[in-house]
Amino acid sequence: MADAKAYLERVLGTVKKRNPNEVEFHQAVTEVLESLIPAIERHPEFEEAGLLERIVEPERQIVFRIPWQDDKGRMHVNRGFRIQFNSALGPYKGGIRFHPSVYIGIIKFLGFEQIFKNSLTGLMMGGAKGGSDFDPKGKSDSEIMRFCQSFMTELYRYIGADLDVPAGDIGVGGREVGYMFGQWKKITGLFNGVLTGKGLDFGGSLARTEATGYGCVYFCQEMLKDRGTSFNGKTVVVSGSGNVAIYAHEKATQLGAKVVAMSDSNGYVYDKDGIKLATIKQLKEIERKRIKEYLKEHKTAQYQEGCFDIWNIKCDIALPCATQNELDGKSAQALIKNGCIAVAEGANMPSTPEAVELFIKNKVSFGPGKAANAGGVATSGLEMAQDSQRLMWSFEEVDKKLHNIMVNIFKSVKNAAEEYGTPGNFVNGANIAGFLKVARSMMAQGLV
Ligand code: NDP
Ligand code: 2IT
């Protein structure tokens, strides 16, 4: 037992030394490695093959300059990233994030998580992530277009339908994917599934927009079933009000729950009668305004500045769908005290390690992001399949496949947690189940 632990600590030490100050990356690697102890004990051949040393080191890291011009003719320079982390299971696959907080440590943490998430979907996809420290807030459509074009003018060299397939993430949705696809097509002269999340008229998949939020609720539904209950009649808090949050709200409501609070990076709204999704969609998907404006239409709702206090609202189910480390130990304590029974992460790593520990200790059903939010990338995988076939499946067909995938992910996560000695611990289950498939493939493919 001591040996597996020593091996993991050695690998973690190297990660910290080689990637100084990349705290989110350290956090993600620490969580995965700690979960893997029983799997490493059962497979001493992994250490002999230097498998963990390889898995924590990206296969390729691309960092580039993005010059662009605003509407007033002023020049700006941003930094672009693409981390191609692991290709053992298929072409690199993962989203692109545009947010001022982006630096290489964020992209590495997301790329690392993506390896195991993509593995859990059961589809042929390796792990990658990209992005830029560009801030899309307050930019005009033509500024966004010029930025996306400049981003792709460099990135096009490194991507391809059978090589690396980017998609959306924070700050990147259908509009940005459309501009990037147009530029890629113009440069290469090709038309294929090089990006996912495309418009429905040019190779996009029905239900991709809904997929991450719906998938998160499907996963949570399985956790609830497992404890003999359902969404019906439950009170839900959803953080964020972007793509994932909106469709998590939609599906939870369809299943009979009431979503009483949502947020953006400025603050949150609480509506005891249930947040009206049509207003949120209008504000966020169309007008790109702040969530505070919700009160203009719904006078009895309340608005509070700041994000963390949303977790003080009494609820049965919490769905953090905004960003990393948005739910800390104090927030977890408040949720537990108020009787919350399930937390499913729509966002990537929204709960801090302290919060995760508290949820597990207090028997809150906890679905970690790499399992609970895998529906987005899974449906991207379905979009790739449709693009390769030059066919388009119906909404119902895609949604059914998505649902099946989420049910299967839950099963494999639950089974791995049991098989490796920590029943009910879906963090360990997700990390071990996701890891083993990648590890077996890397072993079979030789020293690569
Ligand atoms: P969007 O850009 O559509 O929405 C992001 C939401 O989170 C907004 O409400 C935003 O508020 C809020 N937010 C972003 N950054 C912060 C911050 N630093 N502090 C507080 N709130 C913040 O992104 P998505 O909905 O696509 O992504 C949300 C999360 O889900 C991310 O963690 C992403 O990695 C993850 N995810 C996304 C998938 C997808 O398919 N899109 C798939 C799997 C995971 P504001 O508008 O004020 O910035
Ligand atoms: O974090 C994620 O899984 C995503 N942002 C979606 C990635 C994708 O390729 O659809």
Structure write-up:
It is a single chain. The chain has 448 residues and is α/β, with parallel strands linked by helices. The protein has 3 domains: 2-55; 60-190, Rossmann fold (3-Layer(aba) Sandwich); 211-372, Rossmann fold (3-Layer(aba) Sandwich). The protein contains 18 helices and 12 strands. It has helices at residues 2-18, 23-35, 37-42, 44-48, 51-55, 104-121, 141-155, 174-188, 208-226, 243-254, 277-286, 294-297, 329-337, 353-361, 369-372, 374-389, 395-419, 426-444, and strands at 60-69, 75-86, 92-98, 126-132, 164-167, 235-239, 258-263, 267-270, 302-305, 317-320, 342-344, 365-367. It has a 7-stranded mixed beta sheet, sandwiched between helices. Strand 3, helix 6 (104-121) and strand 4 form a beta-alpha-beta unit. The structure holds NADPH dihydro-nicotinamide-adenine-dinucleotide phosphate and (2Z)-2-iminopentanedioic acid. (2Z)-2-iminopentanedioic acid binds next to strand 3 and helix 16.
Q: What labels describe this entry?
A:
single chain; 448 residues; alpha/beta; Rossmann fold; 3 domains; 7-stranded mixed β-sheet; 5-stranded mixed β-sheet; globular; binds NADPH dihydro-nicotinamide-adenine-dinucleotide phosphate; binds (2Z)-2-iminopentanedioic acid
User: Which fold name is given in CATH as the topology of the largest domain?
Assistant: Rossmann fold
Low-pLDDT runs = none
Strand content range: 15-25%
Look at the helices and sheets and give the structural class.
alpha/beta
- Can you name the CATH architecture of the largest domain? 3-Layer(aba) Sandwich
Element pattern in H and E = HHHHHEEEHEHEHHEHEEHHEEHEHEHHHH
Could you give a short account of the major beta sheet? 7 strands, mixed
Give the CATH H-level superfamily of the largest domain: NAD(P)-binding Rossmann-like Domain
Task: Give the CA-CA distance, first to last residue.
Answer: 28 Å
Fraction of residues in helices? 40-55%
